[in-house]
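One such shown below:
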Amino acid sequence: MDSPSYPSSSSSFDLVGRALRDYIRQHGPDAADRSARPENDQSDIAPHRPERTSDAQEQILGAVDLDRDLRITRYNLDVPAFEGLTVEPGTAFVDLLPPGDVPTVTRRLRQVIETAQAHVARVQRLRRDDGSELVVSMSILPAATPQDGLTVSLIAMAKRLHLYASETAIGTSLDIGETAQSLAQSLLAWGDVVAVDLDYAVWSGEAVVDQAQGRIRLRRAALVPDRVWPAGYLTPGDDLPREAARLLSLAVKRDDVPQAIVIPDRETIERALDSPRLLSALVPTDRPVSVACVPLVLDGCSEDKPPVVLGVAEVWRRPDRPFHDRELLDLQELVARTAHHVDLARQHQREHAQVLALQRRLLPRGRDDTIEVATVYQPTTPDSAGVGGDWVNSFPLPGGRTALVVGDVVGHGLGAAAAMGQVSMEARALLSAGLAPDEVLGHLDETVTMLDDADVGLATGYSALGSTCCIAVYDPVNHQVVVSSAGHLPPVLVLPDATAETLTVHPHPGLGVEFALREPFDVHTFDAPPGSLLTLYTDGLVEDPAVAIDEGVGMLRRAVSRVHPWDDLQRAAWRVVTELAPRDRQRDDVTLLLARMTGRRERDTAAWRLPARDDAPARARSPASALLQKWNVREDTRDSALLLISELVTNAVRFATGPVSVRLIRTGQGLLCEVGDTGNGRPRLRRGGPFDDRGRGLRVVHKLTTRWGVRWTDTGKVVWAELAW
């Protein structure tokens, strides 16, 4: 048949053609033999002359056009190298792929359609009709117009061109499994089965050291092709038996120098393993077979640090196809160039684990009897550097209140995680110290600015300027929520009657972005009757390039309004995230916090307002005593509570002005006593002498209570103390 024309995507041929011409121009037609054959090589194993065909003659280019449904519309594969591939217009392109590669390649194809960005030089296997496989370099290129779909270019290459393309494709991922899988797929051009086993420290992200040979641990990282394996054979994720790991380490590291080895036949393999269990675990077939074991070696950074073996690549094939020296050199070259990619993936794994550990440390723990909290944190790509600066937290505050905090630090990776940890911990410390949400944001604003000016921030090139944060403090007695925001999207409040509203919070720029004029942060108070549901979130949940941000917030409002009071809150949170930000459309980190507020029952609280006179302590003890008896408080606890109230009121009358307020709250753990006044002095506990009368009241409070402290209000301060039952 005539070769079809490609008017809308002819640039795909130009792109691949230029890449091949550049390679041939740099390396020349005899590059394969020159690079494969070491200098002064006097061995008799020379390449057979008829096989020395130039790379320009051996490379074969084909192309397949796909529509947006990934079905073949046109193709040009009329060359001998692609013989045996069944390609028909209207069939799915993925029918040419091994089953295990279908999800990954499909994702890549759709990604190119959506982003119009090419995915170049992926080493890929195609299935022939007879069951054999063809290794090609596959590039996915967008068409001239999005409606035309895309073009897939295929290059069937000589081994050296395959080696050249593999080097480009292997280092495209920071995931250890994907890196090992890419290496295994590339090595399949030299064998029938390829396995990659990596040191356990690589998986855990630990520093790989030159361990004693008897202590080395290996785990299978990749295995190709994708097929049903015999029972007992190790597959990805399995740990190699200790004996097998030790034998492999002894084999590839002779005289303390990592070397590739070849075991030419099955009899030799059986003698070396000397165990039926090891044979079934390591040998992929019961037929005659040979294997080449090539170590992944990380060169030492100095002369006193020897090379370290990261793992072993095993290439298995039939013994009637012996491994020649040139092939071993090719294998060693490809594996050697892959070792540093594996080490980069190991370092990323360690960074990723550190970020996730920090994220988990910030997740809320436990629950209070006045509020139920559910959180969801979903990074963009859990297996890569996608973990970002989103953070969420909830924790109890003095006075039985609860802090709900959500923030979004600019950027991704360890730099963002470090800034996130510092900002979130400072927010918690300041809120626990009694500062109001707007005051806390003022301090965080200064912190982010200092982080950006610090030498560490300048050296790393990371800036947290523009980070956002929203703080909500829930008071279960007043049934109110106090909210302050720095550049964050507004919370959503669902009332008990299922009415959902977006809370009107005065907009304020993000943290650290105002240099000329620093405006104070606003604070807003909203009623939250028992049964209300408060929603805090980050922009990744509601942002979509296809819709306005207000529409995204509206979709969230409708989603949370459907959360029933009897629903399990954590399941409801996952349901909302799945509805608004499914994995296949997620572009940013997603964070959601749902807080179901029940509050304190009216009969569990009482409050009095007293004039600041000398008889105030006695006037406070009288109603408090009656209330404690009504609550059936034990006599010894009641006496301690009355003494506590007397000391706190006495302290307020002595050192403050204006009226004194007393509030008692019965909790599940004990009694909470609060005494407020209009003074701004902070009570301080001091070590007194035997005849020092000053500070005696605070020392009594300190001994009677489990904890006590001060929080500030608009009119003064409140001294609070907790007394266990």
